[in-house]
Fold this protein.
Amino acid sequence: MRILIVEDEERLARSIRAAMQTLPSFVADLSHDGEDGLHMALNNAYDAIILDLMLPKTDGLEVLRRLRQEGRATPVLILTARSAKEDIIRGLDFGSDDYLGKPFDMGELIARIKSLIRRSHMRPDPVLRVGDLEIDTRSHIVRRGGRGVPLRAIEYRLLEYLAFRAGAVVPKSEILEHLYDYNWERFSNVIEHHVSVIRSKMEATGGRRIIHTLRGQGYMLDARGSAE
Amino acid sequence: MSVAKRFGLAGRLAVVLLLSECLFVALFGATAWSFSRRQLLQAFDAALRSEATAIGSMVEWEETAGQLQMEYSEELRARFSRHHAADLFWVAEEATGRVVQSSGKVGPLPDWAQAATDRATYGTLLHAGRSYRGILLRTQVDDEGARGKGPFRLRVFFATRSEELDRRLARATTFLLGAALVLMLASGLLGILLTLRALSPLSRLCAEIAAVGAGRFARRLATGDVPADLAAVASAVNELLARIQAAFERERRFSADAAHELRTPVCTLKSVIQSALMVHAGPADHEAVLRDLLEDVGRLERLCESLLLIAAGEGTQRNETQEACEWIAAARAAVDELRPLAEEAGCTLEFRPPVAAPAGIAVGTDDLTTRRIVSNLVENAIRHGAAGRPGLAGGRGRVEVGLAASAETWTLCVADDGPGVRAEDEAHLFERFFRVDPARTRCTGGSGLGLAICGSLAASFGGRMSYERGASGGSRFIWTARAVAGAPHEAEGRGGV
């Protein structure tokens, strides 16, 4: 999952990113003013946005308004020291999905982001189940047929993303967009490499193929038949 | 006197009323008693006089005896025997002292009866265990009978039992005393009741004022149905409540703003620490994190300092003064300290002392305050004014610190040629936590308290801060300080703020 953090207090933004990236689920981009933040939100694919309200250049609420006006449905969590009732109501009314006051607990922030992402993919159960594949998004443990599958962070992230989009065809470009932060140079072969590694780990214990490659279209996580 | 204090206004009025009523009743009673006594005695004494005169008129010169003799008439004798059996009388010749006649054993006459005046004297005496009241009269025998031997002067003494009189007097006294007491009591009680009644609006007002407890300063006293002079008190109290309410409101806003300001660095601290704990980095990274935290703590520390400065300056009056040339020197020192910053920001910094510094003038400030205010203003000017104007020669901004004196004040003006302050922001410049750009850019690092601190410090010394737009569009921040003739006034053992 790729997160955008728009916060003008640089050390705070970096600490949030550092905390989120300790979990294999997340990579995060930073932006320190409203203008730049809006630009990044409109031009990249994010699974969630953490938005501070008091931003230089363009105010946080204005960023939110323009984002929604452009039809972007990215979940937005507002993070700000202004937590009077009127401010909360305004923030939600402008199109945000959640609101967290400063100072906040890092664990709570992460849990709320995860919840927003689950809701946006309409997968309310924190344990993603596809066939006999179980991905626990809380402990980041993957099981196939009851047996644990050891995955590296990037592999987990890829699998988790496919699981959220289970049953749909996900183009390689989309996977790239959601798996890497802004600074990563996109080599599309890297996806094929990771998918094959994941497959080999999961099928090592005799499981059926669950990640399917659709030539020219992308990948699909599906427990039903094989399409390769 | 302290007892009187405890009783309060109503009590005091009641006591005064009571005392004055007692006094009047007593005076009246005494007058009435004295009057009725006099009336009683007058009647009695008139009777005594007429008896004595009658007795005296019974004395005549008896030719045959060759002396004065008293003749009883039958009636007189009867009268004496019937009603006045116990009366005393005594008649004597003035010249010789020979007793003409007396009613038996009179005994030695009392002192008052031996007075030598011509007027009738009255008095009391005790005879055979009974009280008498009597008269001593001097009279003359008719010349007719004396045939040339007279006039004979007589002393007539007559006394009669005064028990009846005494009883009447006692009754009158008792009655008047009793009446006086009852009157005092009744009027005292009535007076107290009426006083309390009359003062009840006051006690109602007191109760209303007492009901305005802490936190309920929105209440106002009713001034409608209150007597005129109390209405003035009530409206004065209302104004006071309005002022208190405004002050509380300011303090509440200040606390809210301060707490809000503190949240942000606290939030960063918390996030950095939580993140560091989650990341499980090695010792080298720990050091970096700790340095980061120190920076945040520094920000918190500076913010706390600023808040404390503001709180300390609020509402205090400070009388210290600094000698004019020392003031100029302190301002110059503060300016010099900021030269590196000005250099870095690429603007020139000029200091212009006044042309002539008159001796013997002191400025309402102290050394620390002068340095603080000047540093604050100059730093602001460098940061916000350093942008200079595009197209300005050399592209360097200019900051000028000018000092000037007038009759009662000294002014210090920090002028820059930056973009100036927008008209709508001018009124709010010296408000706490006011920032021209609400999204508080990190690079300027300001908390919005700098100008508020300057304003508060200046005001506590009896001066003020003000803003003017410069002739060419830049900003001019002016500190007007009191000028006092005479030697500088040091603080008396006060710890510096």
Q: What stands out?
A: Chain B touches chain A through 25 residues (CB under 8 Å).
